[in-house]
Amino acid sequence: MSQRVNEINTVIESIPDVKIVKPFEQSKIDIEGCITVFVEGLEQPLEFNVTIHPQYPFKSHETETIKFSNDDLIEHKHIMQNGAICIHTAHTPVLSQKLIYDIESTKAWIKKYYINKDSDTHYEHLIVPQKAFKQNHFAYFFNEVDYTFQKNQFGFVDYSIMNNGVFHKENIQSSIFQSFLDKDRKKIVDVDWNFQLKNIPQSTGLFIFLKDAPSKNQRWVFDNWKDFETTLPQDFLKFLHSVEERLAKDEGKTLPLFVGYNISETEIHWQAIILEIGNFPIYGEKINKHWLTKIEEDKVINWAMTRNCSYQYFFGRGKLSDQITESKILIIGIGAIGSILAKTLVRCGCRKLGFIEYDVKEPENVCRSEYSFFTGITNKTNDLINELCLISPFFEPINGGYDYSEAFDFFIKSHLADSGIKSEMEKHLEDYDIIIDCTADNDLLYVLSQLKIKSTLLNFSISNHAKHLVCASEQNRYDFITSQFSGNILDFDVEDLHNPTGCWSPTFKASYNDINVLVQTAIKQINLKLEQKKTLRNFVIETDDTTSFNINIKEF
């Protein structure tokens, strides 16, 4: 017997209320044994088969490498279909200590889920096997819709294939729901995504809303079509038969069936089944001179992956304050600062953005902005909108993302004295809740300062070598910015600028990392003030990397 096996047996024997029924032994790969565990409240101890993997006491891809299993317990919460209970314990590299932690976690599971029969407040999704169908995986993304489905309602789903990728070592195809249609293909409701996603070519699948989850013990999804025998109505089975007849020429091809059910009073989840045309799990049977469509015996269900990509889940891990994400935002100038700002806002939950930018993207813009080399020379606005649509399915460019990009600079600077045109410009800009000027154009800064608009107007400017970011948010924006940069308040190098080839104005030197640190810090500062419902004041972010990196925010 190995030293490792000896240690496991010795440690477990020493743990109170735990007894070894079958001593631990080395199998071909794992170490296996059987124990009983007693906690107060039990009439008799519970027995567990224990499997310890070679990686133990370390986890494997965030999964514990010790399994406590009992097939008789599968009706309880937090237990897998193979009878293994779900435990998550603290890290330790010491095998003996990890065994103690894991046994204590098992005792905690017994108390909470076996004795007290607790239910967690958050919903636990059904356990769905992740298996390939003919060497291919399928994933479908859905979004909540403003429609109430009725029990056993069925019809068609139009969906679009987004991408063919790799899932570990196998192929995977990812698609999105586009719209629900009734059995006569009359549209019921559209699924909302950004305009690029809505323009992808569409294919057709099927749906049925069952209301109740297709599950055993509210834990595991059905694994055999016979499990649906008392669930699927005859009308739907006949519908399946008619669809398969119409698609006879496509025999062998796949067809997704989406099964919907409530996981709360208001929320629906959809699971996907992959059907093979010409091999549907149904057959006809004549009973009392009437043909009925029946479900075949012993037909395994081929489940696919689904993900709820509704806004609250898509940004569930973190978003900015609602005061930002619910705003219509205009960014003027989408170079290094503006493009980083735009991409951050979209990643953090903002949906409605407009842009003013006359310039095109050149190859040298890529190194410190949010653009790609692959798209070559193109309008910055077009390029950025494409990038943002790839990030968030909820991004919606206002007015197509363009706001007088060519004419804006001319009109606002040449008609400042024209009260009528000035009023029109003010009215147009007030369509936005937040306007952020990232142009580093002092002329534009001055002109914007002369306008009377209710929108929150901000100005972002960065000094050479990204030593400072100045954010002006108050009525004295012009005076504040010019005094910081031209009044020798900020101490930075004004000589060592980047001079591109050709007759171009020099620009400040800074890497993508330098600029990003400042822009992200500024967004953090603004978001914090809004969350705290405090007045947003002018501020300067100053960095110092002479000995070690330091960052400081000074409000004015």
TrEMBL record:
<protein>
    <submittedName>
        <fullName>ThiF family protein</fullName>
    </submittedName>
</protein>
<dbReference type="InterPro" id="IPR000594">
    <property type="entry name" value="ThiF_NAD_FAD-bd"/>
</dbReference>
<feature type="domain" description="THIF-type NAD/FAD binding fold">
    <location>
        <begin position="321"/>
        <end position="451"/>
    </location>
</feature>
<dbReference type="Pfam" id="PF00899">
    <property type="entry name" value="ThiF"/>
</dbReference>
<dbReference type="InterPro" id="IPR035985">
    <property type="entry name" value="Ubiquitin-activating_enz"/>
</dbReference>
